[in-house]
Amino acid sequence: FFFFFFNSQSRTHHQMPSLIIPDIKSRVSSVLNKDTKSFGRQFMFDGSDETCWNSNPTTPQWILIDFERAVKVEKILITFQGGFSAQSINVMKDEGEDKWEEVQEFHPEDKNLTQTFVLKEPVSLTKLKLHFPTSTDMFGRIVIYKLDVIGEDSNHISRWVLCTINQCDER
Question: Count of CB atoms within 10 A of residue 51's CB?
Answer without folding.
Answer: 17
